[in-house]
Amino acid sequence: MRFVRPAVAGVLAAAAGLAVAELLAAAARPGGAPVVAVGGAVIDATPTPVKEFAVRTFGTYDKPLLLGGIGLALLAYAATVGVLARRRPLAGTLGVALFGLVGGLAAMSRPAAGPVDALPSVAGAFVAVVALRWLRRPPAGLPFTGGSG
């Protein structure tokens, strides 16, 4: 039970960061949307026979399944980072920074992308770091602090 709260904090922090990144990308340049960019980079790195197998097996559901898989991997990663940050805040911060770096590099790897496409991921990572640090130690008196009540 002692890992549940930090895992939830990691997931909530990642959700906040991802929400900011996706909103910024939607407002500025959809090519910078981290989840779609990572999905595109995964597809580009996948060998052709594997892609053909996925299309044959899943048909038009291949991309939604890929994005769902990315979401599940992100969920597991965020929970792990939250638990890691419980005792090692710097490691949690570095884990979130890695999360932002992967999204930014994936966005910049897309055709016709530039450095500006990494900005949503960088901003999202910043928000996620702030959220994770706050969720680790929210201000006293808030319901999430888990007082004696």
Number of strands: 0
Describe the biggest sheet? none
Count of individual helical segments: 6
Poorly predicted runs of 5 or more residues: none
Overall SS class: mainly alpha
Reading the helices and strands in chain order gives HHHHHH
Oligomer: single chain
Percentage of residues in strands: under 5%
Question: Mean pLDDT across all residues, rounded?
Answer: 88
Shape: globular
In helices, the fraction of residues equals over 70%
Cα separation of the termini: 17 Å
Rg estimate, integer Å: 17 Å
What distinguishing features does this structure have?
149 residues; mainly alpha
Can you characterise this structure?
The mean pLDDT is 88. Helices cover 75% and strands 0% of the residues. The chain has 149 residues and is an all-alpha fold. The longest helix has 26 residues, at 62-87. Helix 2 crosses helix 4 (62-87) and helix 4 packs antiparallel against helix 5 (89-108). The two termini are 17 Å apart.
